[in-house]
């Protein structure tokens, strides 16, 4: 069973010492923004799984075998911060992870985040996406993924955490306020 952390002071201490961090969660919850702040403050290489692993130009998905090879190379590094959920790669990532931060905001908040992001970037390239992947308005399939994340995907995340990272501490953040508190306690500018 993974060690779920409830004490924010302890979590901030673990975060400050961590050299390999996975930040996971539903799309639109703010994990990329949080990831970039933490990686800059802790001087950890920031790796967006969307940019480095999943997508090729034009929203073509990279073959799974290639994805796993890339992730295997990345996790061998001494330090990194990986932004992306993908529980099918937890078997590769978690054995090398010092801390998992699970951004677990309510679905309405994630939907709002996705629409705000689309409003800002639609028709343009978002920095954490692969080159040639121009932001578009969320379609029905993507909105359904977000709406059903907790019921369909969170149980698999928990299962994979238990299976591949039973000794890895997991901090769950359920609001932007909790994200700000973590950054504040860790001495990271919000």
Automatic annotation (TrEMBL):
<dbReference type="InterPro" id="IPR027417">
    <property type="entry name" value="P-loop_NTPase"/>
</dbReference>
<protein>
    <submittedName>
        <fullName>AAA family ATPase</fullName>
    </submittedName>
</protein>
<dbReference type="InterPro" id="IPR052922">
    <property type="entry name" value="Cytidylate_Kinase-2"/>
</dbReference>
């Amino acid at each position: 069973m993974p060690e779920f952390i409830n004490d924010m002071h302890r979590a901030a201490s673990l975060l400050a010492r961590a050299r390999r961090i996975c930040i996971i969660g539903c799309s639109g919850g703010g994990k990329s923004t949080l990831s970039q702040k933490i990686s800059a403050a802790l001087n950890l290489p920031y790796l967006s799984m969307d940019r480095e692993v999943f997508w090729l130009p034009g929203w073509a998905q990279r073959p799974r075998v290639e994805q796993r090879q890339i992730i295997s190379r990345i996790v061998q590094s001494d330090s990194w911060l990986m932004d992306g959920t993908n529980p099918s790669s937890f078997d590769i990532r978690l054995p090398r992870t010092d801390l998992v931060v699970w951004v677990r905001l309510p679905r309405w908040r994630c939907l709002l985040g996705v629409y705000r992001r689309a409003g800002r970037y639609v028709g343009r390239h978002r920095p954490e996406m692969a080159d040639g992947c121009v932001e578009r308005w969320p379609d029905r399939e993507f909105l359904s993924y977000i709406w059903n994340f907790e019921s369909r995907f969170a149980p698999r995340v928990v299962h994979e955490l238990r299976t591949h990272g039973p000794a890895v501490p997991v901090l769950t953040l359920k609001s932007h306020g909790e994200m700000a508190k973590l950054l504040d306690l860790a001495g990271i500018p919000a």
